[in-house]
Amino acid sequence: MTPLLSARGVTVRYGSLAALDGVDLRVDHGQRHALIGPNGAGKTTLLDVLGGATRADGGRVHLAGRDVTRLGPAARARRGIGRIHQRPATWSSLTATENVVVAALPHAVRPGRWRPGAKRAAAERTAGVMLERLGLRDVGGVPAGRLAHGQRRQLEIAMALAGRPRLLLLDEPAAGLSAVEVGGLVEFLRNLPRAVAVLLVEHRLDLVYALCDRVTVLRDGRTVATGTPAEIRASGPVRQAWAEGV
Length: 246
Ligand code: ATP
Prior knowledge:
Layout: E1 5-14, E2 17-27, E3 32-36, H1 43-51, E4 58-63, E5 66-67, H2 73-78, E6 81-84, H3 96-104, H4 118-133, H5 149-162, E7 167-171, H6 179-191, E8 197-201, H7 205-211, E9 214-219, E10 222-227, H8 229-234, H9 236-243
Parallel strand pairs: 3-8, 3-9, 6-7, 7-8
Antiparallel strand pairs: 1-2, 1-4, 4-5, 9-10
Helix pairs in contact: 3-4, 3-5, 4-5
The structure holds adenosine-5'-triphosphate.
Adenosine-5'-triphosphate (ATP) is lined by residues 14, 17, 19, 37, 39-45.
């Protein structure tokens, strides 16, 4: 079966440093796939390449069989790639609701009979549903800049989901969250419909093992292992990477 995402030979160079050096990655439909590895392994760079924010120096990226290598972030978002950043990327002066409406607008389905404002109304409905699902209904009117870190993280997830992604790229979503918030995040991701696949960059192995059915290990810009969590736990390269501090 055609994978949802296929990256082959992805290379990114910064001067003489190869941040990624011929990386292959396959994410299947509905899969929960973790990307782990030591600091500087290239995890964020790979998410940037997959999301279209960074142009690779070599290699190809396919989404559901279509070559998206040359597309930018907006075009990839329209084709179903949603992205959560290490630091939540929200518009501080807009309210939580407005942030999600803006994110939903390009994807809002236009109803059969056109009327003025129909698209905006659809985006507002989507925003209401997403804020409710992420536990943000009560802060819908609060500017994003005044939300607590954990709430902004949830808001960014709501914004990404408003774009109806087929693949969600999550960069360390648990970073900076309280234990209670991490519990809520795990619960939320567990309940996410399988129509959405997840590629998760995460240092916390307990979360990786709780959420993911596939794990890829990067080190020095290369893939050193890929397999089920049980296989990865038992594999030599991973133990070595861990010994050096992930
Ligand atoms: P961490 O777990 O610390 O977030 P990572 O696995 O996500 O690390 P990257 O942030 O992708 O690693 O970085 C991979 C390598 O590329 C590192 O050596 C980093 O210093 C380098 N790098 C990343 N972005 C740039 C840039 N814009 N300019 C120069 N070097 C960069």
